[in-house]
DNA sequence: GTGTAGTTTGAATCCTACG
DNA sequence: GCGTAGGATTCAAACTACA
């Protein structure tokens, strides 16, 4: 196992199987054009980007201000989204694909901007949770889904990777649909500190990332994640002989991510 | 049964249980503020189809190539969307809710604009089809879903109608989730002419509309649909003792819609 | 009437290599 | 870039034909 944590990335180090510590905008600028085969991004969902809402240790930085100007908030989120998507697009190989996950709070902003930037959507995929949090007040439907957008850089891209037959195998030999059923991340897979506190508030289930990777990459492809968190994307890539480059601002998350590579997860390799 | 087809709407006629012939922008302008309890809208999706598509058995797919689905650009589609949404918002009661259905082609445009206009999203609901069209070429996941956005006029609205207990009844007494399972509209429910040709290329399944109405309206509420087509929304409303106002440009669709009220559909009242 | 086999079809941004 | 030829590609439900 040769996984690098890069604290001061100078733009020259080999970034295969590495986790770069730093702000994604700063670090992405150092990377040369068109080197990634696939991108998975799990950007922040909250609209109050000006103040980061949570610290790694879960303490709330700021209460949500009711007097917040909603329009300004969307505008700030849009600027942020456009900025990282433009930079990611530069780093994608010509026939690379990109996945972005989000909820109804942000996915319409993200999808709209992706289309504006020329990305061509291949599918919207719906992660349907077997065990979502109920709506405690009974005033809405249980929010049991998250949405992934799968896209290529532009309309003309034809030869992107889609492992059609591989996907069929995981769906009783019928072609895989865009509704995916996975439980939320908990149990032995969920990273927790000695006090039982979750390390990351939105850790994604490994089987979800495995399906993403098995569907849209080949062995030894280089996978990129600009908001890596505890690096579920890297773990999934590593399990399936893909290479990865992760960027994560919080070193706290990265140190936990590194532990994952030395741990034998009890979760099945690819559960449905 | 007292259902009116209004050919020359003068803005004064009682519009309960009526179908107005005309362009939705023109006709909506004649309607006074804040009179509808709920809105359901199935706008054009802006599919942007490129070439003809053939099944593996060489038969041609009957694509949606209607003139009403053609837009020159995202910008043109956005302008159209913003325009009808602004007008609809004016017609909604203060605590009314709105549903908009779409696919990945347009739903990100719609959701983004709704948020920009101040609508506050309550849920995204995913219609998961039991019998979608496959992806014949095997280059993407089967597109087996459509998305509905459910929203109120703005963030502050609290006392909107959500029939929580009624919904529980249809979900084995568990709280209803945002993943809904219905087949596509075909069989005896699908309107066809004497030659077996579809009357409308995108007729929605009645059970979907029934769930929308049972979830978000009370008896005798007034339901509005600006893109009524063959008026599935009206049929669902009528079945459940709600009133309706429909606007539809194509009189051809309306005349078929009127026939529906005299026909005893073989479909169950509310199937899951 | 019943049962079985074969046919049709659905909001679709659906190919690739080569000259 | 474009045009064209070659070749691989589908699932569930409703409907029709026929025994």
Automatic annotation (TrEMBL), chains A, B:
It comes from Candidatus Falkowbacteria bacterium RIFCSPHIGHO2_02_FULL_45_15. It comes from the Bacteria. The keyword Cell cycle does not apply. This is Methyltransferase. PANTHER family: RNA METHYLASE-RELATED, TRNA (GUANINE(10)-N2)-METHYLTRANSFERASE HOMOLOG. Keywords: Methyltransferase, Transferase. The keyword rRNA processing does not apply. Belongs to the N(4)/N(6)-methyltransferase family. Residues 37-257 form the DNA methylase N-4/N-6 domain. One of its GO terms (molecular function) is DNA binding. One of its GO terms (cellular component) is cytoplasm. One of its GO terms (biological process) is methylation.
């Amino acid at each position: 196992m040769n996984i690098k944590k890069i604290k001061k990335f100078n733009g020259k180090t080999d970034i295969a199987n590495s986790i770069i510590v730093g702000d994604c905008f700063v670090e992405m600028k150092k990377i040369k054009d068109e080197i990634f085969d696939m991108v998975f991004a799990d950007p922040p969902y909250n609209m109050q980007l000006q103040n980061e809402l949570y610290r790694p240790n879960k303490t709330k930085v700021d209460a949500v201000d009711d007097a917040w100007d909603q329009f300004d908030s969307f505008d700030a989120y849009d600027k942020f989204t456009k900025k990282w998507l433009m930079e990611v697009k530069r780093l994608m190989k010509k026939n690379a694909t990109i996945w972005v996950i989000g909820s109804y709070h942000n996915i319409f902003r993200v999808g709209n901007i992706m289309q504006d930037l020329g990305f061509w959507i291949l599918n919207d995929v719906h992660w349907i949770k077997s065990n979502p949090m109920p709506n405690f007040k009974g005033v809405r439907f249980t929010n049991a889904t998250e949405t992934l957008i799968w896209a290529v850089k532009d309309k003309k891209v034809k030869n992107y990777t889609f492992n059609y037959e591989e996907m069929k195998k995981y769906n009783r030999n019928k072609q895989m649909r865009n509704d995916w059923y996975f439980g939320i991340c908990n149990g032995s897979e969920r990273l927790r500190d000695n006090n039982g506190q979750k390390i990351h508030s939105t850790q994604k289930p490994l089987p979800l990332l495995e399906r993403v990777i098995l569907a849209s990459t080949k062995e030894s492809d280089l996978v990129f994640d600009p908001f890596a968190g505890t690096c579920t994307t890297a773990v999934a890539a590593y399990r399936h002989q893909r290479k990865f480059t992760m960027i994560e601002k919080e070193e706290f998350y990265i140190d936990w991510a590194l532990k994952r590579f030395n741990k034998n997860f009890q979760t099945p390799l690819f559960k449905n």
